[in-house]
Design brief:
It is built from 5 helices and 5 strands; from the N terminus they run βαββααααββ. By secondary structure, the protein is α+β, with helices and mostly antiparallel strands.
Length: about 120
């Protein structure tokens, strides 16, 4: 399937780096060929448990995360408590803030659920 990058970003509401996709940019640099092994949103961008765990590893408060992700504290609080789902843009912003803080996200597999861990500071 070939789609224009700006159309894809508009439809999905986030950058491609946060999706589980194989991306090949065409030689015309206008279109992107996507190799999608499963539905795009079959894996959640971020779970409430990952958010709470990542924040705990960084010893951040909900206010700290909200400030770094440029979302409201009530957005973080409501998501972490399971009161509501996040908009894709908010989920991407929160995930990006946690990653910039040094959190690595672990995808679920057949045996274990999703998780987080600290990045190895020696690797950069």
């Amino acid at each position: 399937m070939t789609v224009r990058y700006r159309d894809l970003r508009k439809r999905l509401g986030c950058d491609l780096q946060y999706l589980n996709l194989g991306v090949i940019i065409s030689t015309k640099m206008r279109d992107i060929d996507l190799c999608i092994p499963r539905p795009i949103w079959s894996d959640m961008l971020l779970t409430p448990e990952q958010c709470r765990a990542g924040r705990a590893l960084l010893t951040w408060t909900q206010d700290d995360l909200a400030t770094r992700a440029e979302v409201s504290r009530s957005t973080v609080r409501g998501f972490e408590s399971g009161q509501h789902e996040l908009h894709r843009a908010s989920a991407a912003a929160i995930r990006r803030a946690l990653e910039e803080g040094g959190i690595l996200f672990i995808n679920a597999d057949a045996e274990y659920g999703p998780g987080v861990r600290m990045a190895d500071p020696a690797k950069g």
